[in-house]
Amino acid sequence: MVSPLLLKGYGIGVISYVVPIYIVEIAPKNLRGGLATTNQLMIVIGASVSFLIGSVITWRQLALAGLVPCICLLIGLWFIPESPRWLYGNKRKNQKLDSWLLEAEV
Fold first, then answer.
1. Which residue numbers delimit the Major facilitator superfamily (MFS) profile domain (predicted)?
2. How far, in Å, CA of 45 to CA of 86, rounded?
């Protein structure tokens, strides 16, 4: 059986890499900085809350509790739109998001 800590660490690593790239690709220019800042702020708040919760419960319970957000994010992956760069790379230039890609390249 795969350790919950290993899954949690892998999920955090993937999210830390993918989310800023997705924000840059999908957000309009005037919102990119604010969204990237909010992303970093939420990461710090999440680490702080985990520290506080970890002082009350055991590390095993904390590791299992950390799987809940990972599962929610995994389910949420089915509902996020494709990024403009992905649409462009897969020859779907007629999609609505193509105008955002052209804006991002400027």
1. 1-106
2. 31
Provide the residue range defining the domain that includes 86: 2-104
Sign, CA torsion 87/91/97/102:
positive
**Number of domain units in the chain:** 1
Contact assessment for residue 57 and residue 69, using Cβ atoms and an 8 Å cutoff: no
pTM of the model: 0.62
Q: Where are the beta strands (DSSP E) in the chain?
A: none
What residues contact residue 88 under an 8 Å CB cut-off, 6+ apart? 98, 101
Query: Taking residues 21-38, what's their average pLDDT?
Result: 87
Contact predicate 81/96, CB 8 Å? no
* Cβ atoms < 10 Å from Cβ of 53: 13
